[in-house]
Structure formats: structure tokens, C-alpha cells
Write a structure and sequence with these properties.
CATH class of chain B: Alpha Beta
CATH topology of chain B: Rossmann fold
Number of helices of chain A: 12
CATH architecture of the domain at 30-266 in chain A: 3-Layer(aba) Sandwich
Strand order of the largest sheet of chain B: 6-7-8-3-9-10
Number of helices of chain B: 11
Shape of chain B: globular
CATH superfamily of the domain at 30-266 in chain A: P-loop containing nucleotide triphosphate hydrolases
Strand order of the largest sheet of chain A: 6-7-8-3-9-10-12-11
Order of helices and strands of chain B: EEEHEEHEHHHHEHEHEEHHH
Mean pLDDT of chain A: 88
Shape of chain A: globular
Low-confidence stretches of chain A: 1-21
Number of domains of chain B: 1
Radius of gyration of chain A: 21 Å
Helix content of chain A: 25-40%
CATH class of the domain at 30-266 in chain A: Alpha Beta
Distance between the termini of chain A: 24 Å
Number of strands of chain A: 12
Oligomer: heterodimer
Largest interface: A-B, 50 and 50 residues
Number of strands of chain B: 10
CATH topology of the domain at 30-266 in chain A: Rossmann fold
Structural class of chain B: alpha/beta
Strand content of chain A: 15-25%
Largest sheet of chain A: 8 strands, mixed
Radius of gyration of chain B: 20 Å
Chain lengths: 347, 280
Amino acid sequence: MTEKPLSTVAASGSPASGAGAAPAPGAPLLQVEDLEVVLSTGSVTGRVIDGVSFGVGAGRTTGLIGESGSGKTMSAMSIVRLLPDGAETSGRIVWRSQNLLDAPRRRIREVRGREIGVIFQDPLAALNPIQPIGKQVGEILRRGGMARQDVHARVLELLGRAGIPDPEQRVDVYPHELSGGLRQRVMIAMALAGEPQLIIADEPTTALDVTTQARILRLLADLRHQEGLAMLLVSHDLRVMAHVADEVVVMYAGRVAERGPAREVLERPRHPYTRALANNVPAVSTKTAIAEPLQGAPANPFDRPSGCAFHPRCPLAVERCRTEKPELREVEPGRFSACHRATEVAP
Amino acid sequence: MTSSDPVLEIRDLRVAFHGPRRSLRGGRTITQAVDGVSLDIQPQEILALVGESGSGKSTVARCVLGLVQPQEGTITYEGRALGPIDKRPAELQRAVQMVFQDPGSSLNPRMTVGSIIREAWKVHPAVAPSGERRETMRELLAAVGLDEGVAARRPTALSGGQRQRVSIARALALRPRLLVCDEAVSALDVSVQSQILRLLVELQRTRELSILFITHDLAVVRQIADRVAVMRKGELVESTTAEQLFTNPTHRYTQGLLRAAYDLEGAVEVTFEEAREQIS
């Protein structure tokens, strides 16, 4: 991703209302500590998130990587309390020195959308199909207390900032009239409407074409560099992560397998699961053989294997892995791995 | 038939749909989804058909399967015309089978895996004589890497990778010669994607299949395709060997697509100017 100089701050960015001074870049903005989510669906109950900890620094991007059932989306959505019915959470989610898990519902509604913006994977499902896009963006502004006469101009500005060409022409169109990429930009405009300090983006480019993906990633990177937005990016796509995230958290079966600086983790994994994921990403620039696949399917977090949840699929597994759950430990400065044999993982 | 005769010949295919409104004030327009596409698939070849959404690649696949009727053009299988699916002779219906993107929605959740596969034999009983069906089922499941016990289970009790194996087994149950795979690995987890790709390549060799592999994922194309056809806005912009396409793309659009794609390592080029034009 092209690095943008921090000095090119967008002239359009209006001051964050009442958000206070932004913390210094890199200082922890959000801290998730020992998060647990117990979920009951009909007959089964499971601790689907089991002791997950990670942080997002001010102006930084943390990536949550994982396959289906890894708990990446649920970990992210716990922050803004968007969880299925019957989910019980414990641990701490510290946002601006407040534990959001203890906060009243009213406070969460204030955080969601205003302090923390959310971008969902499928904008067509997240947008209201029978309301013009401009109205949907405007509604967030009006709810945020903006005077009626100021809303229209601000909507146009937000659509423009999200990279929608000719906002005046598009403000009255309906979501279905837009391409997937433009719909995702409308979602981004809505997420920006509250002038958040953090954006949670759940698979924001997964449903998009390659060329559109590249442009949305560029936009997100620009927002970060020019406006100092922090981002929690949820994705199964390691290529996206390698290029957008500063830090990554690799999740497996509701636990953190590995955590550290994005490039280092993906290029020099210290957990066999990360290594398998990275080896399974095919290249475009050179012809690669189809990787030696992992056996089996991702573990079910409702029925997690004993010891290390990854042991049934792990080429390095030994007896200890079957019986003893590996704790996440610092295996080298800044690098954390939950693997008994972390030091033996070769790229 | 000599070995160089194509299995499938598509000649000057044209398909138009009544599309959504293109402009804000305009009326309904006719969208030319496929606009004069000609393609050959050789025996035991993997031909990748790539393009972005709306390029018409899936419409071409649907024409091959007889689910969409083209306004113009012909599709022939070993020299015999392929019409709409319900007008195809039984052996042509069998010869071309499909693997869908999302096995979750293409497999009936109320049926067991065994009955899903046996359903195909009800329509084409000659493929598997009733006395041999139990054994054929066992072979078929083994060929796609599933235990025999899976036959008694329902798709909802299986993982995504297992479900995709079931839909491959269902397609193979009729002993096809040509498999049409529409984004067959796109919805799968990374660690499972390689399993299914390996399986498809192995089956292509052992069962002497030709595969029309429709995808937007250029990295996967590079791993498995013999030849690649690139579509854009209903037209074929480039059709050549995989080696040639990735090392020396001639069309500007293909060059742009390759620039917009990126690897785990190295830099991202996001200078794809054509993407700007595509914003609609």
C-alpha cells in the first residue's frame, strides 16, 4: 500500500465534535482483555470466544484473521455489543478508559456509530433498500443532533470523502441502483458520519471484484493516513491483511493462535496454523503448486478439541498438544504465539 | 474424432437480458450480457473463464448448461448441438455437469447425502444399474475423499469443504465429460480451498474430464488452468494459454486486472485506471 504523508490532511475533515483530543498515534485506543462469549443456541451451549486479548492503537490498523467459526467477527462485534441473542460476555473491553462490557445500553448506542463506526460485509443487507442513500446517511447526522439545514451539505461531503463520484447526482438513488463497490462506499460514508476514532470493518472487500477491492483498500488506507482513523479489520483474506494491517491477531476456534506485527506474522509465522494459512495463499506473480492442504475442517468452537484446539490438524502435534492448552506467550519481542512448539515453527 | 477436436465449441454466443435502469432517469435497458463469445474446450483441459462481476462469465456457463437460451450463436458438444436442458438427449444432459459456488444452498438440506446422489440416478438409471448402486456410491464418496458414513447424513451436518465434496460427487455420479465449476472454491476457507483444488485437478486427470472453471481469483487460475479466457462487459478480450496470459498479457484490460491483483508479499499496485471507468 502506498504510504501517504501524514501532512496531507483532508481539508474536508470537520473537527470531531466532543470527541476530545485524539491520543498520540500508537497509544492504545481500544483494549480487549480476556474476552469470553458464551453462546447458547437451542440445545448447545459453548464458550465460543475463549479468552481473547488484543488492542488497537490510535491511528493503527489491527487485523483479526480467521476462518469460519474462528470467532473473529464475534470478537469484533462484542465491542459494539452486536451479538446474537443469548450471548453472554465477560472480560474487559476498555474504550477511552471505560469498560464497555459494564456500560449501560444507552452508552453503547452512543459509542456505536459516533465513536466507533461499523462497516459490514454485505452493504446490500445492511442498507435500507427502500430509502435513498443520501437520506440514510442524513438520518445518522440528524440523530447525532445536526441542524436540519446543515445535513444536506454534510451528506454530500461524506459521500465525496468516501470516494463516491458526483455525490449530487447520487444522493437520491437507492442502494440497488449502485454497484457493489459504490454500495460499500455508502457504508463507509455512514461509518464516517459520526466522526469516529475507530472503524470496525467486517470483511469490507470480500464481496467485491479485484479492481474494486484495490480501490476500497486504498480509500481505507487514505482515511487512516489522512485522518488518523484507527481500524479493526476483520478478514479471512491474508493478502488484504498483509497490505492493510499493522498488527494481526490470528484466531482459531475462538482463541488467539498468534499475534504480532502483520508482515512479520504472515511472512515468518510462529504458529503452525498461521504457517498453513500463509502457505495456502496462491500467488499471481509466479505459478505456485497447490499447497499441501491441512487435513480436516476448522474446529467447531462449540465442540473444541482438547488441549490445543488445532492439534488434530497440526503437523507438529505431540502428546502434550492433546492434553495441555497452550497459553499465548511472547516468543520473541512483540511476537506472541499459543503453541507449545512455537520455536520449532519454520516458514 | 481426433484428439485435437474440442469437446465443447461455443460460436458467436449472444445473450441479452432486460436489465435494471442504467441511468437515474432512463427506462429499462437491454443488457447485452454476452456479446459474440467464441470458445473451445479441448479434451482433458482446464479452461478458466475469468472476469469481474457483470462480465458475462456466469451467463456463458448457464448457456453451456442449457439454463439460459442464447439469442444467437451455437454451442456444440462433440459436434452435437446443445439446446435447452429439457430438450437435450439423456446422454448430453449427463455429459455436462455443474459444481456450484455455494454448496450450502445448492444441496437440499432435507435430503441425506445418499439420497441427493441417488436422485441423479433416478433421472438417468442407465448410469448405475440398481444392483450396483451401493458399491458405486461407496466408490464415488471415496473418490471425493468422503467416508461411506456420510451418505446417511444431511448436508447441514457437514462442514463447508465436505459439502463441496458432496456436490462434486453429485456431479460425478452421472459420469460427465465436462464439468462446469462456477466459483467452486471461492466461498471456502483458505485451508479447505487447497483440498478442493487438489481434488478437482486429480479428478480431472483420473476421470479424463474437461473443466470450465469460472472464477474471479487469478491466483487460483494460475495454479490450475491450462488456458484462460478473459471476459469484460460481455466480450472476450483475451484467450490464450495460462503461461502466456500471466507472463505476457496483450490486452490492456488483462494487464490492468493483473496489476490490481496482489500477492501476500510485495507491493500492491492500485493504479488501475480502468477501474475508474467501471464505476457506474
